[in-house]
Amino acid sequence: MWSRDDVDTLCMSEECDRMRANISKKKVAAWREECKKCEKAKKPLPMPPNRVEFLPIEWSNKMRSPGQSLMTSLTSVTLRSIPALRAIANDVIFDVLMYLTPEYCEAIIECVTTQIIEQYSTFQRIHPTFVKRGGKCSIIGHSLGSVIAWDILSILKDNIERNASKGNENDPINVDGDDSQTGVYSLSTLDKSADNPLGYQACAKGSENDSKHGTWGPCLPKKMTRTIPFTPHMTIFLGSPVGLFLTLRGAHAVFDEMRAVAEAERASLIPCDNEEADPPPVFNVNPIICSPFSLPTGALYNIFHPSDPVSYRIEPLLLPEGVANDELPPPLFLSPDGKTIRLHVKARQVFNNFGSLSEIFNKSVETAAAAAAAADREAALKMDNLDSSRQQATKKVYEGCIKGKEVSFNLGGRSSRVDFQIQPGVIDNEYLSAVTAHSSYFIHDDVIDFIIFNTKTEEFESNDLD
């Protein structure tokens, strides 16, 4: 609805202006408090805070001009009843469905990439010493915009790896030759042209009976070589359906295949004279749990409200498919320092844990025996329905290897975690919050404080360069 002029909802430019103003007010207020403390302690005053600029990228109006034949046809076939609801369907659902088509997806990515390049060039002309003084650029994507940001980073990753050095004869591990003896790379590409290297359209294919394949990036009519001119210092997704899009693209299979490749590479480096013998004890390491997949960004945060119906997680897709749902690591609560959890949230966690323990303790012996018998029957039925021995091996290897342990995702970069959920309020109804959750990120204090904290680390470095 941000693209419509006949509604009261703030457009993206106004949302960015509001967030810029709120962040500036909070940074100045914190700086004044710090100055008062320094004056009382007779210490030198701190440097004034740097300004965080927000430049909106709007593509909807450019891609959906009223004169387009597609929009004209859509308007003609739209029923005249309940116009408000049909306007929402045409504005929101239409964009999502059209983005799934290769041609429309390519046009949107081209439009957004062009605007980022133009905005970056203009900002550089106005502030010619920005990069020299250590200035950083980040990307924030909301809703479908986060999917566009993911795809832009996927294309950037593809071009970076395409132009990366492949090593030399003195460094044979990095040499990318056709006569590789490892034989562990099973990733292929959806584009069968000979000059198309492995990239964001990679797919992981199994045997003839296994048609599992997928891609982590956009399916485009042709490869895109135009990319953004910088590597983001930080990438933030707000209310993001990236997890849904990756699931539809079959990215989980590709991430699992990358993990298998990493396992095989590690195994090939283990010295062992007898191939049938077990490796030395010093090399008996735990299996690789998280996929080594990453994007060219300093840090990636997938922030969502727990009641937002449009948001999806990303971390489970980077874990093996054999991991049970109850073993998945819960998302971290969003806080400026990543550690502060409000008292009522802690109390709710304790209450939930106490409730689950009480249910287990209150079971009688008879019901426990009946539950055990039912569990045995259910387990036997599941074992009979396993599709292949590969699934059995995966479940056996990764069973119980995550629950209660810390995990680290390469995709998260500096953060090591990707999924962060906003802490609920003291009085918070899930269904009532779902009405406004998706449009509340730009004014939410937790999100603003999180951005301030993560841009504050570079503040003193930039001031020292003045």
What gap, in angstroms, lies between the N and C termini?
42 Å
- Rg from alpha-carbon coordinates: 26 Å
* Class computed from helices, strands and strand pairing: mainly alpha
Strand content: 5-15%
Mean pLDDT over the residues: 74
Shape: globular
**Helical residue percent band:** 40-55%
Order of helices and strands: HHHHHEHEEEHHEEHHHEHHH
Going across the biggest sheet, name each strand in turn: 1-4-5-7-6
Number of helices, counting only DSSP H or I runs of 4 residues or more: 14
- Give a quick account of the main beta sheet: strands, pairing sense, barrel closure: 5 strands, parallel
Low-pLDDT sequence parts: 166-198, 205-211, 356-365, 386-397, 458-466
Regarding quaternary structure, what we see is single chain
Protein architecture, described:
There is one protein chain. 44% of the residues lie in helices and 5% in strands. With 466 residues, the chain is mainly alpha-helical. Helix 1 (12-40) packs across helix 13. The relative contact order is 0.11. The model is unreliable at 166-198, 205-211, 356-365, 386-397 and 458-466 (pLDDT under 50).
SSE topology:
Blueprint: H1 12-40, H2 60-63, H3 69-77, H4 83-99, H5 102-126, E1 139-142, H6 144-163, E2 187-189, E3 202-204, E4 235-238, H7 242-249, H8 251-268, E5 300-304, E6 332-333, H9 343-361, H10 365-384, H11 389-398, E7 419-421, H12 430-436, H13 445-456, H14 459-464
Parallel strand pairs: 1-4, 4-5, 5-7, 6-7
Antiparallel strand pairs: 2-3
Helix pairs in contact: 1-13
